[in-house]
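Recall that a protein's primary structure is simply its ordered list of amino acids. Everything else, from secondary elements to tertiary packing, is in principle encoded there. The following example makes that idea concrete.
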Amino acid sequence: MRLGYMTNAFGPLVGSGAGVTSVKDIRYLTMCDDSEAMKTIRDIGFEYIEVLDGNLTKYADNIDELKEMMKNADVHMMSVCIGANFIYKDALEDEMAHVEEVCKAAKEAGVTYLVICGGAIRTGGIRPGDTKLLAEGLDELEKITDKYGLVAAFHPHLGSIAESPKEIDELFAYSNIKVCPDVAHLLAGGYDPIEFIKKYYDRIALIHLKDLNDEGFAPLGTGRVDLDGVISYVKSRGYDGDWLVEVDGYAGDAKEACRISYEFLKGKLV
C-alpha cells in the first residue's frame, strides 16, 4: 500500500494557454512552486504525490530536473491526472497525441497510474451515445497506456459526463477500464461512495480520498463523506492497493488541510 497527496491544492488551477487554440495542448496546470509543494507534502508525512498533466509535461524536455526535484523532496510520483473530452471525433487524434506526450513523460518519471477525468458535456447537454463515445476514447487511450506500462484508471468527476450514477454506470458498461473512485465527487454527484465501491470493487486501481462539506471539498474528517466506512469496507475485502488524498478547491490553508488529512489517517492507513 502506498499513500500519496495531490499537489493541486497548493495553487490556482488553470488550463494551458496554448490549449485555447490547439486541442493537443489542452491540459490542467496548478500554478504552484512544484518543489515547495513536494517538500511540504513530504514534511507532513506523505511519501507519494499525484500531479496534473501540465505540471508533468512542463518538464517533458528535462525530466531529469523533475527527478532531481523529487529526489530532493524525498517523494515519488505515483500518478498523473489528465482531462479528456473524447466525444468529438475530429479532435480525438489530437487528444491522443497529448495522451502520448503525458505517458512518455510519466514513464520517465516513474509513474504508475494515469488517472482520467472527463467526458465533455455539450452546450445542449449529454446526447444519446456520448457515454459510448467516451468509452471508445478510453479504449484508444488504454492502447497508449499499455504501450508505456501505465495503469489507466477512470475518475468519475463533477462537471463531466461521468457525474451522475446513470452516466457512470452506462460508461462502465461500455468500457472495461479500471476505476479510481473519488469518494467526494461520487457523493456530490449523487452516487453513494460505498455502493459504488461495492459494485466496481474488482475494477479499482487506486482510491482518491477527499471530504465534502457545504462549502465544497474539505480536509479529511471535516465533512460528510463516510471515510471510515469506505476504509473499513475495502479493508474487509482485503484491499492492499494505493490511496491518494486530494483537497482541491479548499478555501482554507493548503498546508493545514494536508496536515489535518494526514492526522485523520493515523491509525487507519498510517
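Residues 46 and 125 are 39 Å apart (CA to CA). The longest helix spans residues 89-109.
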